[in-house]
Amino acid sequence: MKYHAHPQAIVESCKIGVRTRIWAFAHVQDGATLGSDCNVGESCFIEAGARVGDRVTIKNGVCLWTGMTVKNDVFIGPNAVFTNDRRPRSPRSPYARNKYQNSEWITPILVGEGCTIGANATIVGPAILGQFCFVAAGSVVLRNVKEFELVAGNPCRRIGWVNKRGERVPRPPQ
């Protein structure tokens, strides 16, 4: 099987890996890249320019924007939010007249291998989420998160460390 898209999904991209599943009301724009064995939940939006690795789970209601890179084996919980514009304005407003003429306004977000992002977490770009870090549900990320770091709160702060399985450990794995 190449990939499976629900009949009510909109899939415009031709860069989708084998065995990836895209569910109802999801929209994958032309120019987005999805790896193999991914699962894209209902009502997700993946914008042109977003890059997703292999074995990634994207739960319902998640939007991935231009400037985002999601590495392999990532879990993104339902309704997690990502932003790629630190100072957004309506492009129709005279106050943003020239802002959106090029891509300089895009703030990149890199989600490292094996990360977990809990339900309703908000990641404000620019941000680098280190491999195997764990962002607790409802957290607001305004800074980079270290490898294996467990963060929670608004704004998030380190509350501990996790291993590759997401289990709490007393210190960062070596």
The general outline is globular
Q: Low-confidence stretches at least 5 residues in length (pLDDT < 50)?
A: none
Give the integer mean of the pLDDT values: 97
Number of strands: 22
Gross CATH architecture: 3 Solenoid
Task: Tell me what portion of residues adopts beta-strand conformation.
Answer: 25-35%
Give the N-to-C terminal Cα separation. 38 Å
- CATH classification, class level: Mainly Beta
Please provide a written account of the structure.
With 174 residues, this protein is mainly beta. The protein has one domain (3-86, 105-169): Hexapeptide repeat proteins (UDP N-Acetylglucosamine Acyltransferase, domain 1), CATH 2.160.10.10. 0% of the residues lie in helices and 33% in strands. The chain is built from no helices and 22 strands. Strands 1-3-6-9-12-15-18-20-21-22 form a ten-stranded mixed sheet, with no helix packed on it. Strands 5-8-11-14-17 form a five-stranded parallel sheet, with no helix packed on it.
Summarize the structure.
The protein has 174 residues and is mainly beta.
Notable features of this structure?
single chain, 174 residues, mainly beta, UDP N-Acetylglucosamine Acyltransferase, domain 1, 10-stranded mixed β-sheet, 5-stranded parallel β-sheet, 22 strands, 33% strand, globular
